[in-house]
Design the sequence.
């Protein structure tokens, strides 16, 4: 489509967070916050009535959350923990009892009491050092919002009741709102705020509905009933397009669908280059429940099991038994295929949405991942015990995230040895040859890679963080997203240094950042000598297709050419030309770029 086919003011561009093209009617929904307009004192004889009004609102809220949970579409059943956590907040004494006490003692209305309780809770959260946990204040606010709405009797639109085929247009959608969507009806959504790493975005992908966030003024420009084209591949929204544009997008839609199914048909073929080099393509997962899907996408194993989500799902730190059960099942289901379990990588930006405000001054540089585990050895030990015990049931290896130098490796290995001794003493089985590796995702680890390689069995390159720390660009900040460049020559040089160090030391090497799932990166990573990739399972079919259309000689030539270029822009342009030749059907796809940028 050319620029002149639609007027400028009829087109918006945002952040594509879930791919696909749809054409449909707009439905504006108001998810704005309730304002507390009235704060008043209650007469003595009406206090009990006020308490009862508050309790009724709590009950209604509880019922709404339970209904929402029951109605969760299958694709997002495993995200039900978001709603569980909301129910728990609702029942928490810091909220419930404290508000009731305020109504009774201070004789104030329920809304006012709730507001005061929120302020107290916020003060407690402010003091929590852990950026992730403190940022969960958003969930508390979400719940309070629901109670307030029920107190005011203001029934906001139930998204689950939308029964037309529409595209939702909202200023913001919370993850809970998203789970409410009736996906048989709702075709997709667009929002003014938010970005690719939010829970909402992840849910949209799991639901496989196209979505664009961060459009800034969508609710200002779109009217109810407008015809919209939502291109979740590019981030474009076209309002009331003319017939020519509609036909153009319908064709695009058909091409996209045909291309997707042609790729999916070959997903189970081995990842062999044209000249017969066997490449290992594995999947990154967050939950046990994803294991089945991983196989469908053609993964040969799990190259990265991000274990933090089990910890985020529950309020308490999960115990060794719970972790063991989870890891054992993953290992057993996939056995004899390999599973790489990463030790806890909590903290920093982990899974926070654009709207989360972290309480650490520099969360990405703070107490996260291995730093947190070495600071909290009991939590670390219990996870290590669970991983080691599960290794008796399948083909498990494990690795530590965010290693910045040798001392952390020495300290972590010491704890591993102690845990093994404990298990030996208790007569508990584990794989005595279990492989232990580290993630290379901080530039200091790149520089020290030759030294580190002597102490571990394998490296796994985490490009998401390597780009963040190597280029000094926050991976979740939309204002500097344009600088988050996987093709920056500095990034490619760092990867080359790590590959060489692993090869010289004869240890294993894989790459598990989002670059692994970016088709533009595949030729140069192969050319660099990376032959073990782990990626978002949905990217596997496409990456296998690229691998199957290249020879190693071509890949090496691509890498040599690219190393002669000096800017990310030149590298990207060259690679785009190459991949377009290999796969003419591939649409330029900002969603894929975004995946790389968003991590
Ligand atoms: C990475 O940093 O590239 C990585 C794979 O880990 P995460 O995205 O979980 O930080
Ligand atoms: Mg990382």
Sequence:
């Amino acid at each position: 489509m050319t620029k002149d086919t639609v007027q400028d003011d009829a087109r918006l561009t945002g952040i594509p967070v879930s791919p696909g093209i749809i054409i449909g009617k707009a439905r504006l929904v108001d998810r704005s916050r309730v304002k507390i307009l009235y704060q008043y004192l209650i007469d003595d004889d009406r206090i009990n009535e006020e308490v009862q009004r508050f309790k009724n609102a709590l009950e209604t809220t509880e019922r709404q959350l339970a209904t929402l949970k029951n109605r969760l579409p299958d694709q997002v059943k495993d995200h039900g923990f978001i709603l569980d956590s909301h129910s728990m907040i609702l029942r928490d004494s810091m909220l419930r009892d404290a508000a009731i006490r305020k109504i009774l003692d201070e004789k104030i209305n329920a809304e006012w009491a709730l507001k005061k309780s929120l302020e107290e809770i916020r003060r407690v959260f402010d003091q929590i050092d852990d950026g992730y946990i403190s940022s969960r204040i958003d969930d508390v606010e979400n719940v309070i919002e629901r109670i307030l709405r029920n107190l005011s009797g203001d029934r906001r639109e139930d998204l689950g009741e939308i029964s037309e085929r529409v595209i939702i247009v909202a200023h913001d959608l919370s993850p809970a709102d998203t789970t409410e969507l009736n996906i048989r009806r709702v075709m997709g959504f667009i929002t003014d705020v938010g970005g690719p790493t939010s829970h909402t975005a992840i849910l949209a992908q799991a639901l496989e509905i196209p979505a664009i966030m961060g459009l800034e003024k969508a609710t200002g420009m779109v009217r109810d009933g407008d015809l919209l084209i939502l291109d979740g591949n590019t981030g474009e929204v076209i309002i009331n397009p003319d017939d020519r544009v509609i036909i153009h997008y319908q064709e695009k839609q058909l091409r996209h669908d045909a291309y997707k199914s042609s790729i999916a048909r070959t997903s189970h073929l081995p990842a062999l280059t044209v000249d017969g080099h066997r490449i290992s393509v594995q999947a990154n997962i967050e939950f046990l429940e994803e294991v089945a899907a991983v196989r469908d996408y053609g993964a040969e194993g799990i190259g990265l099991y991000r274990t933090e989500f089990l910890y985020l799902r529950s309020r308490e730190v999960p115990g060794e038994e719970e972790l063991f059960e989870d890891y054992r099942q993953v290992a057993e289901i996939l056995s004899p295929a390999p599973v790489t379990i990463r030790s806890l990588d909590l903290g920093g930006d982990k899974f926070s949405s654009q709207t989360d405000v972290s309480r650490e001054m520099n969360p990405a540089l703070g107490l996260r991942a291995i730093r947190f585990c070495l600071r909290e050895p009991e939590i670390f030990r219990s996870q290590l015990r669970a991983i080691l015990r599960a290794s008796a049931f399948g083909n498990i290896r494990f690795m530590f995230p965010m290693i910045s130098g040798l001392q952390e490796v020495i300290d972590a290995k010491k704890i591993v040895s102690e845990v093994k001794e404990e298990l030996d003493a208790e007569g508990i089985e584990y794989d005595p040859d279990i492989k232990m590796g580290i993630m290379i995702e901080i530039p200091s680890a790149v520089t020290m890679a030759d030294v580190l390689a002597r102490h571990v069995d394998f490296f796994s390159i985490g490009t998401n963080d390597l780009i963040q720390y190597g280029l000094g660009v926050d991976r979740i900040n939309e204002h500097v997203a344009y600088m988050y460049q996987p093709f920056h020559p500095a990034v490619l040089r760092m990867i080359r240094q790590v590959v060489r160090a692993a090869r010289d030391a004869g240890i294993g090497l894989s790459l598990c950042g989002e670059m692994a799932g970016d088709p533009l990166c595949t030729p140069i990573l192969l050319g660099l000598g990376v032959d073990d990739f782990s990626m978002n399972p949905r990217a596997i079919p496409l990456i296998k297709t690229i691998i199957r259309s290249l020879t190693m000689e071509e890949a090496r030539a691509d890498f040599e050419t690219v190393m002669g270029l000096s800017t990310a822009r030149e590298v990207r342009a060259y690679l785009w030309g190459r991949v377009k030749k290999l796969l003419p059907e591939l649409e330029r796809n900002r969603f894929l770029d975004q995946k790389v940028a968003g991590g």
User: Anything to note?
Assistant: Residues 1-9, 351-358, 593-599 have pLDDT under 50 and may be disordered. The radius of gyration is 25 Å.
